[in-house]
Please model this.
Amino acid sequence: MSYARQMLDSYRRSFNIDAGLLAATIDALNDCAKSYTADVDADLAEQHVPELIKCIRLCLDCADVCAATATITSRLAEYDSKITKPLLEACVATCRDCGDECEQHSKMHEHCRVCAEACRRCELACQQLLAAMN
Model:
């Protein structure tokens, strides 16, 4: 069981969203942010860094967006959907763009393939949580 799920299970209030879905989204956001950071580091170690500049930039942006969204989404006391929904929407957009870019490099760089996979998982998790919130 993930730490996000354990924390949600320990929470004394009830929420309108399935705890499993919320925990899976928080886990996907955290995993994604970590994979972006690792991918940037791996990109910078490659021989042809100039070819990876767009990928590096998107990964840095997405890592920041996912980390912020994971943090805000984990705060359930006095939850405010006017803040959480736009962050989740931003995650969907940045994960989509970053995943597309990483996929372009995935045949040459395994780290880009792994990052693209994390992007797609996070994008889907955020979409599912958004759908459940509506």
